[in-house]
Amino acid sequence: MRGLVFDLFAGPGGWSHALAVLGVRDVGLEWDEWACKTRAAARLQTIRTDVALYPVHPFVGRTWGLLASPPCQAWSMAGKRLGLLDQPLVHTAVADLAAGRDTRERLLASCRDARSLLAAEPMRYLRALNTVGEPEWVVMEEVPDVLPLWRQYAAILRSWGFSVWTGILNAADFGVPQTRKRAILLASRARTAEPPPPTHARYPEPESLFGPGRAQWVSMAQALGWGATDQPVPTVCAGGGPGGGPEPFPSGSRKALANARDRGTWAPRSDRVVPPARRAARRSTHENCTSTGPAPCTCEAHRWSWSLRSNNQSHATIRPLSEPAGTLFFGHRANECTWIAGPPATQRAEAGPAPVPDPIRITAPEAAVLQTFPENYPWAGNKGQQFSQIGNAVPPLLAGHLLAPHLGVPLNPDDFTLAA
Fold first, then answer.
1. Bridge partners of residue 167, in order along the sequence
2. Cα(72)–Cα(142) distance, rounded to whole angstroms?
3. Which residues contact 94 (CB under 8 A, 6 or more apart)?
C-alpha cells in the first residue's frame, strides 16, 4: 500500500514538481526561507525545519518513498570543497547511524564545513524506517564527488534487503539542456534498481535492432525558443548597423546590446521563453523587424555567435547556444553566468567593423528553463536568492526519469515544459 513520499532537502521543488507532474504529492522538509516561500507559491507541501534536528518518528509507518539531495555547497566545484576533507567524518557518521549510534555532535565539531555532515542525515531516517520495512524505494542525488558515500549507503541498504544502483548520470542524456553530472543512488525493495535508459545523446542515434535510438542533446536555443540553433542573432534595428534575425534576449525590460542604442533604435520583440508546443514558430533564421523610432530599419544583419559562460573564472565552461549549457551553479559573484557574443560571422564591408555586444547576465527565468522548470514557476526572493535556489535544485525532468519507474507511471517529457 502506498504511503507518503518525503523529501529531506526539498529546496524550491525540483523533486516535488516532478512528482506533481507524475501525479504524486510529497512532503518536503526545507530550512531556507526563500525556498520555502517558493514552495508555498507553487502549492507544495512543506515543513520548514532543520533536517538534522527534525524527529524521525512522524515518518515511521507512513513512508513509501524517501528522497534526499543534501546541500552540495560543501562538495561542489563552485565552493571551497571542504566536504572532501570532511568525507572520512561523514563516512563514520553514516556507519554509526546505521548501527544505531548517534555520534553526529562529536563528529560535527571536527568538520571543516558544518554542511558536510548533512550528507549523513538520510541514514538516520533510513535506519528508523527500516525497523518497520520502510521505505519501499529511495532516490538520492548529489555532486559527483559524493559517489563513494552513496556506495557506502548502497552496501548498507543491500544488507537490509534493497536492490541498489549507484553511478554518475549526465542530465543532458535525459533531455535536460545542460550537461549537469550528478551522483545518483536508486534503491528499491520491490524491483531491480537500475538507471533509466538515456533518451538523448551528444550525436543522434537512429533506431536499430539494438534499441530505439536517441535524439540529439537539447540545445539552449531549443529550450529557450531562441530561433535557429546554428546562428541565433539579436534583433537590433538601426540604419547601417546590426539588425534582423531572432532576438536572443526575449525580455523587453532587459538591457540588451546597449551599444546598439547609440547607433539607432533598438526594437525589442515580444517573445519570451516558450514551451515546445509553441517553439516551432521560433525557428526561423530571419524575420522582419520594426523600428520604433525615426532611424531606418536595416535587416541585412551582422551576426554574432552567442554563448553562455558558466562563471567569471579563467577556466569557465563556454557553450554556444547550439549546445546544452554547462552545469549551472550560483551563489557567489564569481559564479555569475553570462551571455557573451563572439565575432560576427558575416558583415557588410560598407558598415565597417561590427561592435561586439557587452556580456549580459543570464536571467533567473532563463536559468530556470535550462533546469527544466516551467517558465512561470513562482520563484520567491530577490535575484540572488532565486539564482541560489535554481542552481541547487534537481532538474525536474531528470527527477522525472528517476522517479517514474518507482511510481509505476509513464513519463511524458513534454509535460515538464508546460506552464505550471
1. 184
2. 6
3. 120, 123, 149, 152, 153, 156
Q: Where are the domains of the chain?
A: 4-203+393-417, 219-323+329-370
User: Is 297 marked active-site?
Assistant: no
Residues 6+ apart with CB under 8 A from 276: 414, 417
Length of the chain: 420
SS3 6: strand
Q: Which three cell numbers stand for residue 385?
A: 536568492
**What residues does 181 pair with on adjacent strands?**
170
Out of 36, 72, 111, 237, the active site residue is 72
| CB proximity list for 19: less than 8 A, separation 6 or greater | 5, 25, 26, 399, 403, 407
From first to last of its 420 residues, what are the pLDDT tens digits of the chain? 589 999 999 999 999 999 999 999 999 999 999 999 999 999 999 999 999 999 999 999 999 999 999 986 655 555 555 667 889 999 999 999 999 999 999 999 999 888 889 999 999 999 999 999 999 999 999 999 999 999 999 999 999 999 999 999 999 999 999 999 999 999 999 999 999 999 999 999 888 777 778 999 999 999 998 864 343 333 333 323 333 333 444 433 233 323 322 222 222 333 434 333 333 333 332 233 332 222 233 333 445 788 999 888 888 899 999 999 999 887 666 678 899 987 654 444 555 566 778 889 999 999 999 999 999 999 999 999 999 999 999 999 999 999 999 999 999 988 887 544
The rounded distance, in Å, linking the Cα atoms of 217 and 286 is 24
Residue with cell 532587459: 254
How far out from the chain centre does Cα 176 lie?
8
* Beta carbons of 250 and 269 less than 8 angstroms apart: yes
Q: Which residues pair with 361 in a beta bridge?
A: 338
Question: Domain 4-203+393-417: what homologous superfamily?
Answer: Vaccinia Virus protein VP39 (3.40.50.150)
Running DSSP on this structure, what letter comes out for residue 320?
E
Whole-angstrom Cα distance, residue 65 to residue 361?
A: 38
| Residue owning grid cell 516535488 | 16
Sequence-distant (6+) residues with CB within 8 A of 233 are 227, 244, 245, 246, 248, 285, 301, 303, 304
